Amino acid sequence: MPTNTSAPSPSSPGPAAQADRGRRPATGARLRTRSRRFLLTAAGAVVGLAFVVPLVWVLTNSLRPSADTFRFLSPVGWETFLTLTPVLDNYTALVGTGLGRGILNSLLISAVTVVVGLVLCATAAFGLSALRFRGQGAVFAVIVVSFLIPFDAIAIPLADLFRDWNLQNTFTGLILPGLGNGMAIFMLRNFFLAIPEELVEAGRLDGLTWWGVFWRIYLPLSRPALMGAGLMLFLFQWQAYVWPLLMGTDAEHVVGPVALANMQGQFSVDYGLMFAGSVVLILVPLVVILSLQKYFIQSVSTSGLK
């Protein structure tokens, strides 16, 4: 009985060739993904070094005598960023300056700003997200514009207004401008919009007032956003310089950055002492940021969800 055997056409690829063709696009996509990942990692490393290298140089020179600050800059070598004979004279010299009082004042101002500012910003964000009223969009637009304007641009006329209110050289005058932070309200409002409306309706059916909805539903679900907003309020006050320079002119109300600037002499600068003071001022926000960074990342990553 004749058998019908047909040879594969020379133009048609065999099974092995077809499988090889299927593997090539996948392999190319993996190579492109790895190349892109490598480039992003390299770019991140370069940006990280650009931030870390000056900090390492400041830390190293805070452990050297002031006369050796610029000794190892030319040529640049390992001794530029590392010292084998560290000394603590610059840090002990800080005791005789006003930096300690300035740091305590900055801590007090920042702590009060975080507590009171979170209450104001969270309630404002709740009103702009959960409630419906006429002119809501206009109010939110004003808040957005408020944090787009640099604060230093309005600091001088605002300081004249505070002087008329007798708030100069008072902690109230130093704290008030940091309480209503437009960026914090913007971030909290967007986070509140991501909370399901079904939870609000269920709470209202159970007899909760709007304050109860805010206190029992919104706040417990918004811990990452509140942490992120609190960190923003803290950093705003901790690194403030122009406003405390205008409003805190006496020694009792000087803040950390202003106290650090006051350590400069009129004709000479003790760089070792300045670098030691800078390191001390950096440590407090660094500890706060490292301990709360995961909450800040969560709040930023979810602020655009709805």
Outline of the structure:
By secondary structure, the chain is mainly α.
Q: Note the total helix count.
A: 14
Query: Which CATH first-tier class of the largest domain would you pick?
Result: Mainly Alpha
Measured between the Cα atoms of the first and last residue, the distance is 73 Å
How many domains, in number, for the residues?
Answer: 2
Domain ABC transmembrane type-1: 103-292
InterPro entries: MetI-like, MetI-like_sf
Biased composition (Low complexity): 1-19
Family: Belongs to the binding-protein-dependent transport system permease family.
Structure notes:
- With 306 residues, this protein is an all-alpha fold.
- The chain has two domains: 23-81; 97-302, MetI-like (MetI-like fold, Orthogonal Bundle).
- Helix content is 70%, strand content 0%.
- The protein has 14 helices and no strands.
- The protein has helices at residues 15-62, 78-81, 89-93, 99-129, 136-148, 151-164, 171-175, 182-193, 197-205, 210-221, 223-238, 242-247, 256-262, 271-302.
- Helix 5 packs across helix 8 (182-193).
- It is globular.
- The termini are far apart.
- This is Carbohydrate ABC transporter permease.
- Residues 103-292 form the ABC transmembrane type-1 domain.
- Residues 1-27 are annotated as: Disordered.
